[in-house]
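SAMPLE LOG
Freezer: B-3
Tube label: C17
Construct: single chain, 512 aa
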Amino acid sequence: MPPPPNILLITSDQQHWNTLGTINPRIRTPNLDRLARDGTQLDRTYCPNPVCSPSRASILTGQYPSTHGCWTIGVKLPEETRTVGHELAAAGYDTTLVGKAHFQPLLSLPGSESIECQPTLRDLDFWRGFHGPWYGFDHVETARMHGNESHVGQHYAIWMEERGLANWRDYFQQFPPVPDDKYAGPYYTRDAQAWDLPEEFHHSCWVGERTVANIERSARSGRPFFLWSSFFDPHPPYVVPEPWASAYEPDQMPWGTLEPGELDRLPPHFALTQQADPDFSAYDEPGGHALHGFHSHRHGLAEMRRSMACYYGMIGLMDREIGRILDSLDRLGIAENTLVVFTTDHGHFLGQHGLIAKGPFHYEDLLRLPFLARFPARIPAGTRSDALCSLVDLAPTFLSAAGLPIPGRMQGVDQLPVWTGDRDSARAHVLVENRHNPTRMHLRTLVTDTHKITVYRDGDFGELWDLASDPEERRNLWNDPAAATLKSAMLLRLARAEIEREPTAMPRIAGA
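STRUCTURE (predicted):
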């Protein structure tokens, strides 16, 4: 009987689906291309929610945000939640998280206590003594910021200090903010995109180095491992050390476009993004928090191309570190029996439809993900699939690869037969939730092989797309009389999908 496989999950943060060299000749990702060459590329993979915390919690639990409870950022995934890490650890796996977690909010309040917050983030004595267990991981090395944000600390700060960068605070935004902060400026377009932090201290290098160290530790133990290597880039702010900040020419960047009139058929919050000073107050709730994307998305083309070039450079540095990780598997002689998956938590806008970053805009750019899987013992090399897949499928698929039963509480499906080429597909649709405020912005999307529909909790507007004939999503068919039959059919499919995904945590064992 073959030994249990190692499982290595590598994730980026907020990466557009087409930023792989195998898809886009303008970007250089030799190590991700290597993964694709040696395994399979899934071109129709989607997030269950286009916001960090809920999507990451779905990876861990195999459940949708409305089930596991972390329904948006600023909401805690309950620490007692059973995760795929718990299941694998119970079966003898060494379970490790290196890098970004973001399972908890930046505030710690009664009932939602968080260790991923200030001032705990910078209590380095606490983090020297804390390495788990946490959310099913026996060993944790984590941090919370993006780029050079002020909420930096935890194990990453300890690592910088141990390597001689005692003044690491000077390279990040000041906390609390000060007027002369050299890294201040518009969040998505920082003035200093070329970060003066020495490259060897960048958080991508930390994730790469510590991932390799923990793979080596697990290999020495003789136990199979489940390791989540969680990179922070290319999530904004757009900032990276040289030579990566200058690796791409801004005037060569294919910035996305907004066609005249294309937002006229969409819900009103889409058009508001194109105003210089939009009023989104109708979407606010008393005591609520700001909605991602509810601001002006108007930026100059030259500035946005500069940001896109930096975004590509951030991916380049991450790709180099992924190469370091893949090389370690070869060096240790364990690549053949290691399932490697690369993906991201959700997508990103780079000017498509006039939008930047993210928000409640369920275009393919935000929902669709880069996705690669390599398992030399079982996945044929150089294959590609357009089968629908969701991040909620990762937990059950990992358990399947390990030869373990899939608990009934998990709502994802086993994708391993698709990855190995034994089945054409494992699901007929994917569901995407987005509930950033309790009621005012609460939407749900169903995606099929050829169509997509989005329904809002409040309001009679919506979105209906024919992805086969309109892959760029320029013509919303929601109010098109000619699409009335299609709309009715898609609404019925959405209702059935909602019933279908209901988990069965406990089997029925008696008639009464």
